Amino acid sequence: MQKTIYDVKRHVPGPVWRLITGPYWWWYNRARHRLAAIGSPQRRSSIRAIKTFSDRHRGTRCFILGNGPSLKQTDLSLLRDELTFGMNRIYLLFDEIGFATSYYVAVNTLVIEQCADEIKRLSMPKFISWRGRRWLRDDPGTIFLDTDYTAPATFSTEASGRIFEGSTVTYVALQMAYHMGFEEVVLVGVDHKFASQGPANVTVVSNGDDPDHFSAGYFGKGFRWQLPDLRASEEAYRLAKHAFEAAGRRVLDATIGGNLQIFPKVEYTSLF
């Protein structure tokens, strides 16, 4: 079914396609979840929790760990005493490196659905998309974010409201880092390149070992995931760069061999 939709889309002018499908996607991706949030005690509790993190780390630095293969070339032991954000299945690395990240973020519903039991076992503050509430509703450690991937494309400096996902969970982590007041945010393991090819955002099922992340079992055989939209994520990263720099803050990219060209590059080991 999904392949048929994409085949049809290729033959329909962009403006016409958006006019036809816009109302449906607005309801599916945004409106129905906002409706479910109205009067929800869990969403109200999450809003209160999010506000307690505002400017909690003002003036300090943090590291956002992507999940690219370059993490295997990165001395992560240097981050043991740093404030860190982990995302998606980063916890597969915790036993190896001997510590967990300070915070955890996940917004993709396929990841949340398939990894809910693993996510529940994490003990750090967990920021999860409200769209994933059905799988983590009974988890007291989850703080739900109002995230979506519909227009308008924005950068939220106050995370208790709407957060645009920007086609990558890293963009959500950047907005959380801004909300917490971090002066400097360093990206590590954000390789921004994938061996797996195909139309952006199409859901695929892994046929074997995962070549695009730090572990072969990250999106291993049978795991359902969506192919990346690197161009859309770059547009979002530009919004993040502008927001941080406008506030006198900065985002640095210390990924070893990464392809992302939005943020200033810095040698990882020079930061310590």
Overview of the molecule:
The radius of gyration is 18 Å and the shape is globular. It is built from eight helices and ten strands. The protein has helices at 2-9, 14-37, 41-52, 94-97, 109-120, 133-136, 169-179, 230-246, and strands at residues 61-65, 84-87, 103-106, 126-129, 142-148, 162-164, 184-188, 203-205, 224-226, 250-253. Helix 7 packs parallel to helix 8 (230-246). The protein starts with a helix and ends in a 19-residue tail after the last strand. It has a domain at 43-191 and 238-271. Helices cover 34% and strands 15% of the residues. With 272 residues, it is an alpha/beta fold.
How would you concisely characterize the structure shown here?
The chain contains eight helices and ten strands. An eight-stranded parallel sheet has the order 6-5-4-3-2-1-7-10, sandwiched between helices. It is globular, with a radius of gyration of 18 Å.
Main structural class: alpha/beta
Low-confidence stretches: none
% residues in beta strands: 15-25%
The helix/strand order is HHHEEHEHEHEEHEEEHE
The whole-angstrom Rg is 18 Å
**Biggest pleated sheet:** 8 strands, parallel
Into which percent range does the helicity of residues fall?
25-40%
Termini separation (Å)?
50 Å
Question: Roughly what is the average pLDDT, rounded to an integer?
Answer: 92
Strand order of the largest sheet: 6-5-4-3-2-1-7-10
Count of helical stretches? 8
Overall strand count: 10
- Overall shape: globular
